[in-house]
Amino acid sequence: MDLSAINPVLLIASLMVAATPLLLAAIGELVVEKAGVLNLGVEGMMIVGAISGFAIAVETGSPWLGFLAAAVGGAALSLLFVVLTQVALANQVASGLALTLFGLGLSSLMGQSYVGVKPPRMAELHIPGLSDMPVLGPILFSHDPVLYLGVAIIAAVWAVLKFTRVGLILRAVGENHDAAHALGYKVVRIRIAAIAFGGACAGLGGAYISLIRVPQWTEGMTAGVGWIALALVVFASWKPWRVLLGAYLFGGVTVVQLNLQAAGVAIPVEYLAMSPYLVTILVLVILSADKSSAPAALGRIFHASH
Amino acid sequence: MKLTSLLASAAMVLGLATGAVAQDKTKIGFVYVGPVGDGGWTYEHNQGRKAVEAEFGDKVETVFVENVAEGPDSERVMTQMALNGADLIFTTSFGYMDPTINVAKKFPNIKFEHATGYKTAPNVSVYSARFYEGRAVQGTIAGRMTKSNIVGYIGSYPIPEVIRGINSAYIHAKKVNPDVQFKIVWAFTWFDPAKEADAAKVLIEQGADVILQHTDSTAPQAAAKNAGNVITFGQASDMAEYAPSPRVSSIIDNWAPYYIARTKAVMDGTWETVNTWDGIGAGMVKIGEISSAVPEDVKAEALALKASIASGEYHPFTGPLNKQDGTPWLAEGEVADDGTLAGMNFYVEGLDGEIPQ
Fold first, then answer.
1. What are the residues facing B249 on neighbouring strands?
2. Which of residues 155-194 of A touch B (CB under 8 A)?
3. B191·A14 Cβ contact <8 A
4. pLDDT of res. A283
């Protein structure tokens, strides 16, 4: 065993990178669920975002345009879910699952000519002075900009939900759509906006994997992150900062367990491999002891005539 | 003629027609563990499938299902293929072993071929390639090329095939560089690019400047490319898009000749249970071009090793070799038998860490 081989500074820096795709996808789904819609298609929207972002970044040479395209791609796919569940009033669970299957297939079709291509690299942030500080520099001030965007989105979602009228309306729609409708709010329109936002965030999360974390395009490369994001929203009791905490915990334990393995720690690897899931669930379950519950209208179909 | 009898005769004609077609065409199914676009393991099996189609043209019909999880789900997929009239089914991952045996029992007239396993039946053959021969070549290059003397190894699952590869690479790295140390990380997946990339990054952060992988995607190659000054080897497929650096060489699985031969055997009715385990000599394992990033003398040494393995003159597991705990395994000049290799569940002396059980 050689724990000195583990560099804690690099460890924390890389756990933030490992957590960001999960964080982005989960915060998007949180907004969707707060509006009373259960979209199980996160995985599908992520993978479509991953290839859309990758393709545009490669074609234009600009990672920024890539991320923009990823957000648009994820949102565009989520509009399919909108048509099914908000217009045709189909079952949300079935539609979400279908969206994932469709997204996986569509992305491998779109990605046919991008296997083995290298994407342009997004420059890491470098603030003279701050980035050069020992310890804090590499941890806080030397990442790619999208990582900070993820944290900013968490803060923004928290502030909007808690302090603004828009947030109040969104929550009202998610708690009791009939009451919100009676008050004159456009339930369906608000939900469409929330679903599109969720799609855009999932797309960004997918592109973070294909453009920064890996970076390359491979079929099925999100490998289940979307499902973990769905679970994370529930365990985080629909609270934005807990999503951040959960994502960093999950990313952190994932990276730590790989580090421990490489350092030859004599803990059976199976325990290390399951530890990210266990630790994240455990911590968030303890935190959710305050009995905060799901939005009351979650997954229920709304039609103005009811 | 009445409508019902018309329909009945139409149905009979249709039935006869499809029956005739089914007899004409040999139907071959492939079960894949990853997507055909993984650029590694599954990609090469799919190349083999395409070679079968190219060889026999209209006489065969191939079907495949990708991303099939190991375990009960694979049993369902195989059963479905069998019910749809497949004559021969290739199941291409270690974890399909018991499902293949179970399904084969239910369909005694259908032939099954399971890759990398060890359980056979009257209608189940097994086939695998001696990847460890290629690992010996990689180990030699790794041992010569490393400057930090730390070689990182991304394992998938702790099964004999993977452990053989680790041992073979280590033995040959150690032979040319006595100071070399292996750091092994188990990913517990065959295919998860993000996780594979994380594993590669962790190994690089801990000082490894050579990364060997036994997982299927090219993600570790990309991670090494970003880190710079790290070399890698293509796994299962050439991964030439990362040449000349970080990818300096590769092990390429060449399944096409085997798939064509077995399909032919089913067509001729000469198929019988076999246990095939071929290596560099038979052409089932190929070594991808050693790139310009490798010095000429190292390249020559690696190629000489490859040639001696191919001719059968040298076996990568030749004594004296001890097991990890120091107990003797092979005496001077003794060569490991296939039985021990097939079930290998121990590290050789010098490797750190424990194999997850």
1. B233
2. none
3. no
4. 80
Residue A178 lies in a domain: yes
Tens of pLDDT, residue by residue over B21-44, are 445 789 999 999 988 877 789 999
Judge whether residue B227 has pLDDT over 60.
yes
A233: in domain: yes
- Structurally, chain A folds into a number of domains equal to 1
Q: Does A111 touch chain B (CB under 8 A)?
A: yes
Euclidean distance between CA atoms A48 and A80, whole angstroms? 13
Is A227 an 8 Å CB contact of chain B? no
Structural domains of chain B in order of their starting residue, each with its CATH number: 14-130+255-278 (3.40.50.2300), 131-253+287-342 (3.40.50.2300)
Burial class (CB in 10 A: 0-12, 13-18, 19+), B104: buried
ipTM: 0.78
Decide if A138 is inside a domain: yes
Alpha helices in chain B (DSSP H): 3-24, 41-56, 72-83, 97-106, 131-145, 160-176, 193-205, 219-227, 256-268, 296-310, 338-342
Interface membership of A112 toward B (CB under 8 Å): yes
A58-94: per-residue pLDDT in tens? Answer: 999 999 999 999 999 999 999 999 999 999 999 999 9
Cα–Cα distance for residue pair B214/B40, rounded to 1 Å: 10
Cβ <8 Å between A223 and B193: yes
Calpha distance B348→A11 (Å, rounded)? 31
Between CA B43 and CA A274 the distance in angstroms is 29
The neighbour count for residue B265, using CB atoms within 10 Å, is 16
Report yes or no: A224 and A42 within 8 Å, Cβ to Cβ: no
Task: Determine contact: A8 vs chain B, CB below 8 A.
Answer: no
* Per-residue pLDDT at B20 exceeds 50: no
Q: Give the domain range for residue A119.
A: 3-124+133-290
Overall size of chain A counted in residues = 306
